[in-house]
Amino acid sequence: MVIIFFLTYVIYIKTSIYQIKTLPTEVLVGDIHGFNIDQDSLRFGILPPGASGARTFLLESDKDITVELKIKGNLSEFIYFTENNFEVKAQEKRRIPVNVVIPYNAEKANYSGTVIVTLRNV
């Protein structure tokens, strides 16, 4: 009985995932503000301790989906999402904000990670 439940759960998880996308993400904590406007990733440029920044990425789908956002890497403690686990309707184009807040006690260094965007069938 337990094996059947487990296999059913694994099959459900695998079939409910529509697509997984990854976005390289980084910020350099330094003495000045510096900008990076590249569109191929979420690079926040240079931010001093105590500063914050925001970037967005465009999400669109040809069908109704649920979106889950995660962050991995040494940047993860600085990143937050204003929305997570939300639905996007078919043909909808939506800008998704990603925010970074640098703590006052952050060491000056390059912090990087990956935003993982999991798209699930509704």
Question: What is the number of independent domains?
Answer: 1
Order of helices and strands: HEEEEEEEE
**Main structural class:** mainly beta
How much strand content do the residues show?
over 45%
Q: Which CATH class?
A: Mainly Beta
| Sheet with the most strands, sense and barrel status | 5 strands, mixed
What would you call the shape? Answer: elongated
Specify the CATH architecture: Sandwich
- State the low-pLDDT regions, or none: none
Strand order of the largest sheet: 2-1-8-4-6
Mean pLDDT level: 84
Number of strands: 8
At CATH level 3, the topology is Immunoglobulin-like
Distance separating the two termini: 27 Å
Percent helix: 10-25%
- Radius of gyration, in Å, reads 17 Å
Tally of separate helices: 1
If you had to describe this structure to a student in words, what would you say it looks like?
The protein is mainly beta. It has one domain: Immunoglobulin-like (Sandwich), CATH 2.60.40. The chain is about 10% helix and about 50% strand. The chain contains 1 helix and 8 strands. Strands 2-1-8-4-6 form a 5-stranded mixed β-sheet. A 3-stranded antiparallel β-sheet has the order 3-7-5, with no helix packed on it. The longest helix is centred in the N-terminal third of the chain and has 15 residues, at about 1-15. It is elongated. The two termini are about 25 Å apart. The mean pLDDT is about 85.
